[in-house]
Specification:
Elements: H1 3-30, H2 46-49, H3 51-65, H4 70-86, H5 93-112
Helix pairs in contact: 1-3, 1-5, 3-4, 4-5
């Protein structure tokens, strides 16, 4: 991926991570826990607490390290985030909407970053002569 697209890709996914942090903080501050947080009096197991952060953080690290198939991983991570958001549908619909929006923005950044993978074809080189040139005609 070209450096400009890689920077855009990484910045977009950093925004997704920050958005998930905002959902986390808002959920606990307002007292309306998402399924992966649970109530403050009885929070979920720590592995479940960090579940929404795992894939986006891998995508950010992969973007920084310029991993070859990071765009495909970004698409998979956005689908994973949408599945996590689906758990809040019917329980905390407003937080679910924000989580779906974050997953959609990650998908949009990943799909747009496919443009950074396209390169122009190299100019063809002239073919070498197969044998001696014929004598010039008068």
């Amino acid at each position: 991926m070209t450096s400009g697209w890689r920077n855009l890709f990484t910045a977009g996914w950093v925004g997704v991570v920050l958005g998930i942090v905002a959902v986390w903080k808002s959920s606990w501050t307002l007292g309306f826990p998402t399924w992966w947080l649970g109530p403050q009096s009885d929070p979920r197991f720590p592995v479940v607490l960090v579940l929404p952060f795992v894939l986006p953080v891998f995508v950010v690290v992969g973007g920084i390290r310029n991993v070859r198939y990071i765009v495909v991983l970004g698409i998979a991570a956005s689908v994973g985030e949408a599945l996590i958001a689906w758990g809040d549908v019917g329980r905390q619909d407003k937080f679910a909407f924000v989580e779906f929006a974050l997953a959609g923005s990650g998908l949009a950044v990943s799909l747009a970053s496919f443009a950074g993978l396209l390169t122009t074809a190299a100019a063809p080189q002239p073919a070498a002569a197969a044998g001696p040139l014929p004598p010039p005609s008068d």
